[in-house]
Each structure stands twice: as structure tokens, then as C-alpha cells.
Amino acid sequence: MDIDRVLDSQDGYEARHFGWRVDQQIGYVTLNRPERKNPLSFESYAELRDLFRALTYTDRVRAIVINGAGDNFCSGGDVHEIIGPLTRMTMPELLRFTRMTGDLVKAMRACPQPIVSAIDGICAGAGAMIALASDYRFATSTTKTAFLFTRVGLAGCDMGACTLLPRVIGQGRASDLLYSGRALGAEEGERWGFYNTLVGREDLLGRAGDWARMIAAGPYFAHSMTKRMLHQEWTMGIDEAIEAEAQAQAICMQTEDFKRAYDAFVAKQKPVFQGN
After folding, report:
1. Is residue 199, in this structure, part of any structural domain at all?
2. What is the residue range of 226's domain?
3. What separation in angstroms does the CA of 233 have from each of 62, 98, 225, 240?
4. Is the domain of 227 the same as that of 170?
5. Where are the beta strands (DSSP E) in 120-261?
6. I need a surface site. Which of 19, 73, 143, 242 has the fewest CB within 10 A?
7. Are residues 190 and 262 in the same domain?
């Protein structure tokens, strides 16, 4: 993916398999097959993975908003374009596919930009995993998220679900959703901590954009370090985590934003961060 071409198009760049635009350092990804509840295809999986990989190498985009066109977020892998062909593949072909879908989650977690999902309507299968891999989730009263892999005869351990979901909502609740494949509604999902905030449908994209702009206006380098530590410390013991955070914070203390914050405090002004 030519990330420079994408970033230079401030009025919006139409990727081949989803909508993409950059507005004031916020990247907006729109899954845009509303007539079928925005399902993913082999090509859109790969292109999304490539986009998030490319975002690792730029600081011109400082936060990401993901949403779905129409009244739904994403219905998961397309039944006819993905599930049907999968039933006819060999084991090596299947493994290439499952590794590729997992690589999308890896790319989302590895990119330095915090990601917010604006979830309306159906959010299922791979769509639920995109929401789960995000850093913050807005939802509406009509949002229904389902990790429905078991409904099609598959295990719940898809794209990292068995490691990510228990860390967000706990082992018991994750077991409930991954074994049953049932939908998680708005109020229950907020109570469990899966959805961070419930908003009206008319306010969904605006509130998600506000959150992203708040992040983009903050100390970008430090935010990217926070995201990295939140991810890496899952596999660390407490002593290793404390040492990793000591090193991370010492690095952040070398930034100009840290000095700007101090100077602004002395001057009784609000700091204006520049991300360096």
C-alpha cells in the first residue's frame, strides 16, 4: 500500500475494499458494503492488514476511527465469498487464510495510533474481532456483538479471541460468549466493560471523532508508548512490567512534549503538544 499517496489525499482516498480518508490527523476507515451489513472478503482482510501495517511508519495520522456504512458495523466474513470457498481449500491454504486474518489483529495492535470503533447494529465474527482489537469502543442501543464462530462449527479461538476477550471482560464472561456465540447487547456490553460508552445513533460517529481528536491533540509519542505497553505487558510478570514502564517513561521524559507541558504549567497555560 502506498501510504504517502493515502496520506496526501486529505479529501479522502477510496481504498479498493473499504473507505479511507484523513481529516485533521484522524484516519477514518469505513467498511462500506451496507447492503450486506459490511462483510469482509479475502481482499478486504488483506487490505486492512496492509493499511494498519503501513500506519506504523507515519506520525501524520495520530488516531483511527473505524465504522460501518449504513446501520451496521460488520457482519464478519462474507458467507459466499469466504466461508463457501474455505470448505474446498486444502490445509495449507486454510492455514494461510487463518494466519492472514490474525495478522490483521496483530497489525491493529502493533500500529502506534489508538483506534476507536464506532459500532452500530450488527458486529459479528471478524467484525467483533476488529472491535475487540480496538482501543476504545462506542456503541448504540441497537448494537449487537457476537463471536459466532461456534455457530458455523468452528472454535471460539479465532483471530486472538481467546486471549483478547478475557482481558477485556474476564474469563467467565468470555467463555459465555465464545462457547454460545450469542449476541452481546448494548447495556450488558457496557456493564461488562466491552463497550466503553453508549451513545445515540445520530451521535455515534461524531463522538468517536471527538475521542480521536482528543487523542490526536495529546502527546502522540507518549500515547503510542502507552499503547505499546498495554499490549506488551500482557506477557510480563509484575517486576518486568515495572521495569519496562520505567524505561518507557524515561524515554518519554526526553521528548519536547514533556518540556512543553512543564513550560505551560509554569506559565499557567494549556500545553500544545506536537508529538515529538
Report:
1. yes
2. 220-266
3. 22, 25, 12, 8
4. no
5. 122-124, 136-139, 144-146, 183-184, 197-198
6. 242
7. no
